[in-house]
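Hey all, quick one. A colleague (J.T.) asked me to put the dioxothiomolybdenum(VI) ion job into the tracker so the inputs and the C-alpha cells live in one place instead of scattered across chat threads. No bug as far as I know, just bookkeeping. Sequence used:
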Amino acid sequence: MATTIAPGVLGVEQTRLEGREKVTGRAVYAYEHPVEGVVYAWLVQATIARGTVRAVDGSEARRRDGVLAVISHENAPGLGEPAERELRILQSPRVHYRGQIVAIAVAETLEAAREAADLVRIEYDTEAHDVALRDDHPKLYTPEKVNPNFPSETAEGDVEAALAGAALLVDARYSTPAEHNNPMEPHASLAVWSGGDLTLYDSTQGAPRARDTIAGAFGIEPERVRVISPHVGGGFGSKGIPRPTAVAAGLAALAVGRPVKLTATRMQMFSLTGYRTPTIQHVRLGADAEGRLQAIDHVAIEQTSTLKEFAEQTTVPTRMLYAARTRRTGHRLAALDVPTPSWMRAPGETPGVYALECAVDELAVAAGLDPIELRARNEPEVDPETGLRFSSRGLLECMRVGAERFGWDRRDPTPGVRRDGRWLVGTGVASSTYPARRAPSTAFARAHADGTFVVGIGAADIGTGARTVLTQIAADALEVPLDRVRVEIGDSDLPMAMLAGGSMGTTSWGSAIVKAITALREDIDAHNGTVPEGGLEARAGTADDIKADEPFSRHAFGAQFCEVAVNAGTGEARVRRMLGVFACGRILNPLTARSQFLGGMTQGISMALHEESVMDLEFGDYLNHDFAQYHVPVFADIEDIEATWIEEDDPHLNPMGAKGIGEIGIVGTAAAIANAVFHATGVRIRDLPIRLDRVLAGL
Ligand code: MOS
C-alpha cells in the first residue's frame, strides 16, 4: 500500500485548529447551544438497588412556580425497544440499579427543576440486592463473546500438563477495582423536537452512531434524528453511545413540547454514564529454567448488570503478547444489581495487561532474569493466537530504546535495598499493546472554484486533536496548504463514520478522507485541472477496502519504564520518573500525539495509585461519587513524565501508515508501577490501587 506522506503538513507539529475558539470560550458545547424557549430537566434517581417503584408523588413539585412536568413511568411518553435496554427509561416501575432514573422534573429554570426533583416522593417495594463481585459468586457464567466480538474462551494444547512440567511457575491472583470515567465535560444533551423530528445537541464520541441509537430508543426512523456535536470535552469510552441522560432529555422535550437541556451532574455520572468493571484475575505462567514460557493461563472474573451483558475483553491481549506452546484464556461474568459496565480507556487491555505484565515480572524474578531479557526470550515470530504475521511488531525495539534512555542497564535487580532518606526507590518496566484497526467510514470531498476545499465526515473530536489531524491528512492528500482545507465533523448529517473509539478514529476517518480526495482529484483532472464554477464533489466509503485488507496481526506496542519512591514510614508511593516508548506506525501530528500518550500514561498512574470506586454493600452502590472521594492525580502527582516513539514504517495499515494512539498510553503503565513498587520495597501488590495500607501491610 502506498503511503501519501508529503513533507509539509503531515507528520509535523500542528496546534489545534480550534484552539483559539476553545481557550476564548467561543467553542460551543452541547449544553451551550442557544435555543429559543428552552427549559431545563433534572433527574430523580432510584435510592434502592433492586425492586419496584410503588408510587410516585409529584404533586408538591408540580405546585411550584415554573414547574412544567414531573415525568415517571406512570405518565412518560412511550419509547421503542432499543437494543440498549438501559436506554428504555421510565417505561416500567422496575429498578435494576441504584441511581437509575425514576423520574424527571422539568421547569422553566434550572433551579426550579432541581428543586422540583427534590420534592418528588417515591415509594419502593425493595428487594434484597446482590452487588458484590466475588470469585466464588454462585451466578458466575461464561459469556459467549467478549467486547466487541471476541470468543470468550480460547485453548491451545494441554495447559495443565505444561504447567505441571514447568521448571518455573507463577500462580497469582490480581484484582482491579471498578473505575469511573470522568471527562471534564459531563454528559450533556439539548433536545429539540419539531414535527416528529428530533435534533439532539449532544456530547458524544460519534454523532452518526448516536443518531441510530437515539432513533432506536424512540422507535423512529434514523432519518428523523439529527445529532450535532462540534466539540466534546473528553469521553474515554463513556460517550461512545448515548447514555440514559440523552434519552431523558428527548423524553422530557417530548412530554412538555419545549426544547430541553439536561446534564448529568458529576455525582450522577457515577451511576449513569458507565464505568470499568472490577476484575479478579488468575494468571498462571509456566516456564523452563531459561525463562521460556511453556504455558500461559489467564482467566478474568468480571461483572455485568441485569439489564445488559457487557463482558470486558480482559484476557484477550494475553492471546497475542507472548509465545508459549500451550495457552488458555477465559472470562467469567456475574450479572449483578449494578449499572452496566462499559468502555473505559482501552477496555480489556488495561486491566488484562496489568495482571499479565505483573505476572511476567514475577516470572523474571523467579528465573533470575532481567525482565526485558525475559520478554525477549518469549517474543513470538507470528501471532500465537492466529498464526498470522505481525504487520509490524516494535515491542523489543521500544524496550531497547527505552532501556537506553531510562538508564535501565545500571539497574541492580535486588528488591528493597535502595534508600533515599525515608524513601525506598525502585524501577519497573512493562509492555503495552493495543490493536491497530480501522472501521468502515464514508467521507465527501468538495473542491471550490476559488481553490479551497471542504471535507465532511461524521467524525468526532473529543479533545484529542482529531479535527486538526484530519485537516492535515486532507491537505496532504490534496497537496495544498492547511488553510485551504476545512474539515467538517461532529454532525450526523455528515457521512457515516466510525465513532471516536477503539483508537480507530484517525485510521478509519483518514482512510475515507484520502479515498474521497483521490476520487476528487481524478475528477479535477478530468476537468483539465480546473474546478468549474459550481465546484466538484466526490464521496467514498472504505467498507470494501477493509474487507479486502490482507490478513495480518496488526497491533501497536510500547514499553513503559518508571521509577518510584515508596515512603517507608507511611507507605506512600510516588512516581518520580516515567518514560513511555511507543511503536505506532507513522506519527501524524507529534504535538497532539505526545499529548495522547502522556494523557494515557497519566491515567495509568491514576489507575495504579489513585482510582477506586468502592462498593457500599448496604446501599448497593459505589459510594465515592465525587472528586473529594474518588481520587485522580493532580499536577503534584505527575512529576517527570516523558513519551516518545520509534520510527515505524508499516505498509499494511492504511494510506497514512498510522496506528491508533489514543489508548496504548494507559495499557502498561499500572504494571510498570506495581513492578517498580516491588523493586523498591520487596512487596508485591497484586490488588489495585496501590494504597498506603496495602504497602504498609507488606513492609
Ligand atoms: Mo475508547 S474506551 O474505545 O472510547
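Adding what we noticed when we looked at it: Residues 505-526 form the longest helix (22 residues). The radius of gyration is 26 Å.
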